[in-house]
Amino acid sequence: MTTAPRRTGRVPIALLLPALGGLVFLVLPLAGLLWRTPWATLPQRLTAPDVVAALKLSLLTASLATLLCLILGVPLAWLLARVDFPGRRLARALITVPLVLPPVVGGIALLLALGRRGLLGGWLDSTFGVSLPFTTAGVVVAEAFVALPFLVISVEGALRGADTRYEEAAATLGASRWTTFTHVTLPLVAPGIAAGGVLCWARALGEFGATITFAGNYPGITQTMPLAVYQTMESGDLDGAVVLSLILLAVSVTILAALRDRWLAGP
User: Fold this and answer.
1) What is the C-alpha R_g of the chain?
2) Helix (H) or strand (E) segment spanning residue 164
3) For residue 200, which of 126, 255, 119 has the smallest C-alpha distance?
4) Which residue of 75, 86, 97, 107 lies most exposed, with the fewest beta carbons within 10 A?
5) Mean pLDDT confidence for 134-147
6) Closest among 58, 134, 224, 207 to 121, alpha carbons compared
């Protein structure tokens, strides 16, 4: 692997000052969070039953949402990268909509689609007795809705960058398209899938707007860490909100550290 040479020399002041300002702008709020953390009572607050319950639920739902995204997102990314079909550009644009859609609007859209009187939810309720809103399964659906684009974009980029000669060689040797996909394509893009899965999981872990709109905020059932931060803040317990935020910050930093090598390996 080769890396681009770093250019040294005098940095123009017109670039240096805005760059430092941008760095301070990003780091200062995190420094404020660490400064305000009640370190003396941190162990007791971290082991409080409501905090532990919210953390467990967050980890569970984020993991299930990531699994759902992997099942749906990897084939979707392959379709976008390998198959030329009418409307592919439109499909790609629709996939990225949750990235720019306000999360609360996403929650309302989920209610209109999967609510008891929704487009599909009414049929699920009347036929199978399945109701997703305001349940733990609803949290998983809301998190998957906002996190799926991260996985699809990452995996599609990996597929487009992969050497297709291996797939062509497998097809020449008589391998079916499914065998080629499972034995050649997936191993080729495994790092991209892993990176997309990690980003997907991190996005699901921090999801707030769609979750509170579609699944509500019930402790032990739908209250994840971001919702617990919101409720704790609303109750006037700033120290408690800071501690919960610190947990999410620690998880985010861990995710960034895990992806560091991959990002540095990019162009």
Assistant:
1) 22
2) none
3) 255
4) 86
5) 95
6) 134
Residue 9 CA to residue 16 CA, distance in Å, equals 12
pLDDT tier at 50 (50, 70, 90 boundaries)?
confident
Helix-strand-coil percent breakdown of the chain, rounded to 5?
Answer: 75, 0, 25
> How far are the Cα atoms of 58, 98, 118, 233 from residue 111, in angstroms, in the given order?
21, 15, 6, 26
Cα angle 245, 246, 247 (rounded to 5 degrees) comes to 90
Amino acid sitting at position 197? G
Q: How far apart are the first and last CA of the chain?
A: 11
Cα separation, 58 vs 76, in Å, equals 26
Task: Quote the DSSP letter at residue 135.
Answer: S
Q: Which two tokens stand for residue 30?
A: 């995190």
CB atoms within 10 A of CB 56: 13
Q: In angstroms, rounded to a whole number, what is the distance separating the alpha carbons of residues 103 and 69?
A: 17
pTM value? 0.86
- Number of separate helices (H) and strands (E) present in the chain: 15, 0
**pLDDT digits 0-9 by tens, 145-173:** 999 999 999 999 999 988 888 888 888 88
Cα of 172 vs its chain's centroid, Å = 38
Integer CA distances (angstroms), 102 to 98, 206, 208, 218, in order: 8, 14, 11, 22
- Residue type, position 118, single letter: G
Residue among 205, 96, 109 at smallest CA distance from 149? 96
Q: Is 38 helix (H, G, I), strand (E, B) or coil?
A: coil
Domains of the chain (ranges, CATH numbers): 47-264 (1.10.3720.10)
Q: What is the dihedral of CA 173, 179, 180, 183, to 10 degrees?
A: -110
